[in-house]
Amino acid sequence: xxxxxxxxxxxxxxxxxxxxxxxxxxxxxxxxxxxxxxxxxxxxxxxxxxxxxxxxxxxxxxxxxxxxxxxxxxxxxxxxxxxxxxxxxxxxxxxxxxxxxxxxxxxxxxxxxxxxxxxxxxxxxxxxxxxxxxxxxxxxxxxxxxxxxxxxxxxxxxxxxxxxxxxxxxxxxxxxxxxxxxxxxxxxxxxxxxxxxxxxxxxxxxxxxxxxxxxxxxxxxxxxxxxxxxxxxxxxxxxxxxxxxxxxxxxxxxxxxxxxxxxxxxxxxxxxxxxxxxxxxxxxxxxxxxxxxxxxxxxxxxxxxxxxxxxxxxxxxxxxxxxxxxxxxxxxxxxxxxxxxxxxxxxxx
Length: 349
Ligand SMILES: [Mg+2]
Prior knowledge:
Bound molecules: magnesium ion
Order of helices and strands: EEEHHHHEHEHEHEHEHEHHEHEEEEE
CATH architecture of the largest domain: Alpha-Beta Barrel
């Protein structure tokens, strides 16, 4: 096969995503997420990617747009759609951090490469056939009446696992409300960095008595690793790090200080580094949850291709939207099923 040299062309536009309901976490409440849609053209093939800016890394749609403009101006993409690792290295050389923007480009490259190869990304990565875990559904911070209503709706919708946001003055009441409606449903807790070590240990004891599986990010993002170790040593529940871990070297740094980590494409800058994060965590006997931002089915589906590598999935970002502009992995009885299409398997609705 002769391939004429075709340049990869980067195009992008803002993607405003309204949530179906206000979504609260310890740092504030969201009614919409401003993301950026990437369209990567290679001849007549278009690959899709999505950037969901992480506010805790000071990313906004403006920073994402500026980074994508730089990637385009600096001619970083070249003409080999399979040179994904190389493009990723080049992006890191030219631009520090800004991982959600890089992730959008990197997932779009996987989409293009899969479409050229005629196989889904999961097959291209050699991961087809492995079974992925179920995904949870997240209950945001709200008053107890709404928490009760949301939990009832989640149970009625048949969700197999719940996650609840914490970091309020009434955290215990939130748990009691959920447990009143759903006494046995697997449940995890995410404090998004809201607790001190002392609060975290006290809460861990309480949560353990209410059949919670693990606690995500009890301490602030920049908490000292010895504080994580202290909480871990005194907590009856496993402690996971989310905001404190972006890249594989962050996982290595927290070895022995946490029981698990949360990997997200918006933090790793793409699928390849997400795989390295996962293997680094495995090498340190850590558990792994694949998480997401509030994003459309593009970002969520990109993560689903790596889902067989992890223990827990928190990929409900598109389910929280009022309207998902893309069709991708579909939710079926707890599981996220990829569509049998080449590349990421996402199409505009
Ligand atoms: Mg989290």
